[in-house]
Amino acid sequence: MKNSEDLELQEQPVVLVTGCSQGGIGHALARAFAANKCTVVAASRSRSSMADLERDPRFFLQELDVRSEQSVQRAVKNVLEKYGCVDVLVNNAGIQCVGPLAEVPLSAVEQTFDTNVYGTLRMVQAVVPHMANRKKGKIVNVGSVAAMAPGPWSGTYTASKAAVHALTDTLRLELSHFGIDVVNVVPGAIKSNIGNSAVASYNQMPEWNLFKPFERAIRERAYFSQRSKSTPTDEFAKNTVATILKKNPPAWFSSGHYSTVMAIMYHMPICVKDFLLRKSMNC
Ligand SMILES: NC(=O)c1ccc[n+]([C@@H]2O[C@H](COP(=O)([O-])OP(=O)(O)OC[C@H]3O[C@@H](n4cnc5c(N)ncnc54)[C@H](OP(=O)(O)O)[C@@H]3O)[C@@H](O)[C@H]2O)c1
């Protein structure tokens, strides 16, 4: 006799993952869902960034820019036309933003919030009516341990992830009436393209005025999650997908390098937190 989790896997849930470029967490999550017999809609801004998935019949590839309402609506429509439902939505697409808050261009702040926060909500608002109609679904928002102990040099990113954590908690309460589970996945430091992408954006920013002496520390912040001990993407994805596919997934799932340290820091007095962050971030 099969247990309920086996039955759930048997149904081949349709999973839509945003931000699936090769080398990143989304790509690894997409492959891990496929390995668990899910039908996977792998979405990214460009198909070429997911070219290795192109010929694999387990994946339906979609170009999707979470900053564009039109793009979101088109991709969700394509998925509903093909499969009739979205069982699991994983809001993984996200960008880092490095720079001192007092000088970082507001256009970069807007871009970060538009991607990480409004992009998540755009996807939620596009998919929830269909999930609510079926009284079934899971929404997974990818936050960050950075939001548990906000440090210097990446305040924009950290604030955007704190917003994701807050809206995830609210969504969980509001959507439970419609049979929709909402999970906050909170990665520690995971190997991906995020450091290189952050530096590419950082290189476009103007020179700092007050913060010139901190230039090196600020630039290093972009790679903070990409050090030698960072958790391999596949390992993180395997654990995360196993958790998401549980019949009753937890409200919060954090794993990866630094996830325990950051959980401890979250409970520390602010003066201790500040001392540790000043030391580790050369502030
Ligand atoms: N890696 C870590 O240590 C870590 C830690 C905590 C949280 N996270 C979170 O994990 C998620 C995945 O990040 P990652 O580390 O895998 O970084 P990544 O390798 O840079 O992947 C980010 C993905 O998001 C996509 N993306 C960016 N802007 C987008 C937009 N407007 N529309 C659609 N897709 C967009 C990127 O597409 P392009 O390839 O086109 O840029 C890429 O596919 C992010 O939410 C990140 O904040 C990562």
TrEMBL record:
User: Which of UniProt's keywords are assigned here?
Assistant: Oxidoreductase
Is Oxidoreductase one of the keywords?
yes
Q: Which Pfam families does this one have?
A: adh_short
Signal peptide range equals none
Name the InterPro entries on file. Answer: KR_dom, NAD(P)-bd_dom_sf, Sc_DH/Rdtase_CS, SDR_fam
What's an example GO cellular component term for this entry? Answer: endoplasmic reticulum
Stated family: Belongs to the short-chain dehydrogenases/reductases (SDR) family.
Recorded hits in SMART domains, A to Z, give: PKS_KR
Species of origin reads Acacia crassicarpa
Q: What protein am I looking at?
A: Ketoreductase domain-containing protein
Entry annotated with the keyword Oxidoreductase: yes
Origin superkingdom = Eukaryota
Q: Which SUPFAM superfamilies does this one have? A: NAD(P)-binding Rossmann-fold domains (SSF51735)
Which Gene Ontology terms cover its molecular function? Answer: oxidoreductase activity
